[in-house]
Specification:
The complex is a heterodimer of chains A (494) and B (214). Chain A contains 20 helices and 6 strands. By secondary structure, chain A is an all-alpha fold. In chain A, the strands form 3 sheets. A two-stranded antiparallel ribbon of chain A has the order 1-2. Chain A has a two-stranded antiparallel sheet with strand order 3-4. Chain A has a two-stranded antiparallel sheet with strand order 5-6. Chain A is globular, with a radius of gyration of 24 Å. Chain B has 6 helices and no strands. In chain B, helix 1 packs parallel to helix 3 and helix 1 runs antiparallel to helix 4. In chain B, 88% of the residues lie in helices and 0% in strands. Chain B is mostly helical and 214 residues long. Classes of the chains: A mainly alpha (494), B mainly alpha (214).
Amino acid sequence: MVFIYLFSGLFLGWSFGAKDTGNIFGAAVETKMITFRKAALIAAIFVTLGAVLDGSGPSQTLSRLGEVNALGGAFTVALAAAATITLMVRIGIPVATSQTLAGAIIGWNYFAGRLTDYSSLATIAGSWVLAPVLGAVFAAILFFLFRAYLGRVKIHLLEQDVWTRFWLVIIGAFGAYSLGANNIANIVGVFVPVNPFRDVQIPFFGTLTGVTQLFLLGSASIVVGIYTYSHKIMRTVGKNLFHLSPITALIAVLSEAIVLFIFSSKALYGLLVKVGLPPIPLVPVSASQIIVGSVLGIGLAKGGKNIRYNMLGKILFAWITAPVIAFFFSFVALFIIQNVFEQTVNLESHYVFDRYTIMQIKDSGLDSDHLSTVNGRVFDNENVLYKQLKESGNFTKEQLLQIIQITQIHPTLIDTKILEDQGLQVNFTQPQWDALTRLNGRIFRHKWLLAAELAKTPAWKKMQTVSKEADEKHNSELDSKLAILYRNLYHPEK
Amino acid sequence: MALIMKTTRFVEGQIDTFLDIVSDSAMMFQLAMEDYLLDRHEQFEMRLSQIRDNEHRADDLRVSIERFLYERTLIPENRGDVLAILENTDEVIDNIKDSMVQFSIEMPQIPEVMDDLWMQTTRASVASVEQLAFAVRSFFHDLAAVNNYIHKVHFFEREADQLGEKLRRLIFSLDIELAQKSQLRFFAIHIERISDYAQAVSDRLSIYAIKRQL
């Protein structure tokens, strides 16, 4: 069954390969600096290397929008996103994978009666505006720098051609590597907890873990997408929006790489924190949107005369409609998968107001006097609970979400063997792992109960007063480690 | 990378040699005219033979550069323009050679009174070709300088036109046979045409330079 479910991830991988190689190599291929075959080969190699060597677990950012808690749901959400991207690729318009996935996840939220965290959505949506704008700004700056530099160095046309090709390949390969590393989580990340592959011993090589095999399969689907369907997007990026020359193609790709690096480099984030400068937030940004922004920036720097504004309009329209289409696809598909194919697309969550949760609410500094109408009750629907609390108390939105989190029943059975089998042990430090091992066999009914128990060990203790960026980083790392436990050690009550 | 650069530099060398030949041919035309006017016919024929050799070498180089650019799919964006520039510039040498061949065949009698003006017209035409060679060279590694040289090509072409007109007026004011006047006019126009062609090539070059601009 898991293999059937995996197909939607592979379909998403295929559509992603078809779309995103266009973003990286489109300009180079359309200016005939690299042949399609060479570009596809480089992309295939480096996407695979990125996914296998540097691929991360399930996507953290998108899960803030809504945690799709059943494999059937994850399958349907991925399917809806893949179908939307394929539709857009057929039209020849590059859309963002994360944007489309966000639409599909919100579709699941509506279907499952879950709350959508609109503040997270606003942050993510903000990056959809910021990314292309930054791409355009960097491309315009680079354009003027290149023009001044090339005017000064007086390099021969043929040598300039050789260097342009060289850097297009290097930056393209780097882009493909980051693409594989960052996006494999979007593609097969949801399947990590139910990974059907077991570790394989390869003579003279070592162990090929199950997760690596899963990522390898995901990257194979991307490679198939690259070879079979990426040409159309390449044309849109390299030719249809604005006619690029080899040098401007290089500028566009370089600008894309810089913006992607700024928004995804943990090293840069750490460095800025270290020297006491305000860090740039690590927000997931879309390569599709940055490249379109970059091409547009170059067009504007050249006077804006030759930009095909009708094409630009089409792209902008697609950026707005893609998440909406994905939302509807997801909603309809979830209904069909649940009612026609009788698959579980949503694990029902319950919210209980008993003496433990009320005490915890009080301890968290929230006013429990207004909870008399819900005291002793169990809710099956997050939305209903939210409305009820809103009517009964004088709580802010953040406080309401906090109460919902505290009351949510999420039984977690500590079993480190499960984590070991899935190759997730690497995510924890030795003291953290030791603390987990000591809790083997214990069940925690609520997420906060497990967090509180683990916090008794220094390795799991959060910083109470977040004074520095480093403290904030420490706390968010602990949150993501706890999320791994909640997701993988979930043990439904009978 | 080093190997690619080595081959690239080899082609750059070929392009430079090609342009040297264009420039040499133009200067040789000027020297040949001096020889002709001073009745050094043997030396004139020797120079014609050198220009013939130059033409063959330029043709071979052009074909070799074209083949290299296509086989290695180099400069895809500018390849067509570069080939057009090389072909058009090559025709300038053909023009020079054709003029000299005509001199060699018809051996026109040029009255001594015309010598100075004849040479002035020749020098202006030759200068326009030399400036064209500079402009083409700049197209490859100093785009900003191209317009400067193109401006000079235009200047010398205008100069050649004016001097050519003077020359034709002088021809028809002399007391010589109408047939000789007609023949001399034909040769005067031949010399002017060299600069006209250089200007036509430079006009196309200025368009290619705009296309190459970032």
